[in-house]
Amino acid sequence: MDKTDLETYQVQLSQVELALSADPENNELISLRSELKELIELTQAAIAQQETAASSSKAEGSKKSAAATASSSRVWAAGDECLAKYSGDGQWYPARIASVGGSADNRVYSIVFKGYNDTELANSAQIKPLPPNYQGPAPSASNKRKLSKAEEEEREKKKKKNEKKLEAKAAKAKEQQEKQHSWQKFAKKSEKKGIHIAGVTGTSIFKTPDNPLGKVGVTGSGKGMTGVAPRTKHKFEITDDPNA
After folding, report:
1. Where are the extended beta strands (E) located within 50-208?
2. Which residue spans within the chain are E strands per DSSP?
3. What percent helix, strand, coil does the chain show, rounded to 5?
4. Which among 221, 97, 93, 110 is positioned nearest to 146, based on CA atoms?
5. How confident is the model over 169-195, as pLDDT tens digits?
6. Cα–chain center distance at 107
7. If pLDDT is split at 50, 70 and 90, which confidence band does 244 have?
8. Distance separating alpha carbons of residues 78 and 97, to the nearest angstrom
9. Model pTM?
10. Hey, which bits of 86-163 come out as E strands?
């Protein structure tokens, strides 16, 4: 991650903000904006760490500088196992390198601590090789790295947010299925009774009517009103015919 990446993310964020101004209710754009903001924050933190590491390395003595150079001479790659210093308590824990970024002089590593899914950025001074014949601790609650209060709150917040999303999607899908089933049932009953429903039995209500005075989308448009036969009073007549 460098300043070029940061500028690219900032341009993308401005484009998303512009699109949101035209469609503020677009959930995909809102989610993309949130992801870009998080990515910008991570990039800024990585750049700050690079600058801090560069300035501190210049102030170190020749002996310490030589030792640091020897320690960082190893070329790390994604997937390598290592010991990494956790920023929460400054202790070393077994981790795996997820990705490698930064420049050739100042590498930035994205690491994942074993037993956890959250990633953290580290420089060359914050990772080191595993000792010979190193065996990681057994996965148990007693030797797991404790999460900070902020990390626990963030994890719980994400968990509840995902649960609400799943519940909302399930409820919406169920409601849509019920509506679809109800409409199909109604359409089948109407078809059995000989009732023509535009758009269901093959004829669209948006078909151009044959009558030039008709309007598209209006059922029966252009036709005159149904005539009603006049009601007359029945007259009883007496006839001589016995069969009448």
Report:
1. 81-85, 92-102, 107-113, 119-123, 127-128
2. 81-85, 92-102, 107-113, 119-123, 127-128
3. 45, 10, 45
4. 93
5. 888 888 888 887 777 777 677 677 666
6. 30
7. low
8. 5
9. 0.31
10. 92-102, 107-113, 119-123, 127-128
